[in-house]
């Protein structure tokens, strides 16, 4: 982690993330940017996919987190034509967000999952609690160490194997529903009991927190933090754009293997750096830091590998890198 990333996020924010496993960053997007993102969603609204099938539902039937209506999802926003894609692409290297990405994923952070739009009308279902550093195996208590979802703080350096970034495109007022989190659960040593993942134990409710957010805010959390969603009860439509980022040499999703090359070429150099596949920084990975993020068209930084080593790798393997 660069010292710049450490210093640009306040000690208060670093403490709160380490304490709770999540953080709300206020006013990241302007009203104009939020309006542009919502207008783009409206233009592509027919592409929304409803989770109507039982196999696609995210809650246990008749549990406190369930509801009659389905959630609606949409992907592909990064590859929409301009200007529709621009706000969604900006999240990859947004100067207000890059300090948090580098603080938690280190230099050379990368986009892991393909971004996802979540749209919900009133009385649509939430999402059973999931995530955490100890495997739940879809609600079955296995108690295994989960190497894919971990959080650490070592000598003041925060790190997570997978960082979720939720861009709020609508307000979330008290009682509306939506994202919820079990504060401090990124440090669990025991799995969450199955009945708690479905909110079926009333005594557990006091441990589940629901942030109040405004459109333009961004919620970030370690995927090692147990989280989910309560049913949407707001009278307006809920809209969020969900991203996941990972350290340079880690990969959870595999969508990067199928990204359209022609669409990638339309990204800025710094945005292209963020959608690189997983490999180590020392192998000449292009990296985005705060200086690069201030100029979206700027060239990402690269730590050069010596020509002698590259030539040796070429002689050994027939490739530029091992």
In short:
The protein has helices at residues 3-8, 11-20, 31-43, 86-90, 98-105, 194-197, 261-264, 269-274, 290-293, 307-317, and strands spanning 22-25, 49-50, 72-75, 110-111, 116-120, 127-130, 151-154, 157-160, 163-168, 178-182, 208-209, 218-222, 227-230, 238-246, 286-287, 301-302. It is α+β, with helices and mostly antiparallel strands and 322 residues long.
Unreliable stretches covering 5 or more consecutive residues: 1-6
| Average pLDDT, all residues | 93
The helix/strand order is HHEHEEHHEEEEEEEHEEEEHHEHEH
Question: Which quaternary structure do these chains form?
Answer: single chain
Strand fraction equals 15-25%
Distance between the termini: 24 Å
| Shape category | globular
Tell how many strands the DSSP assignment holds. Answer: 16
Helix percent band: 10-25%
**C-alpha-based Rg, rounded:** 20 Å
Question: How many helices in DSSP terms?
Answer: 10
Main β-sheet, in a few words?
Answer: 8 strands, antiparallel
Structural class based on helices, strands and sheet pairing: alpha+beta
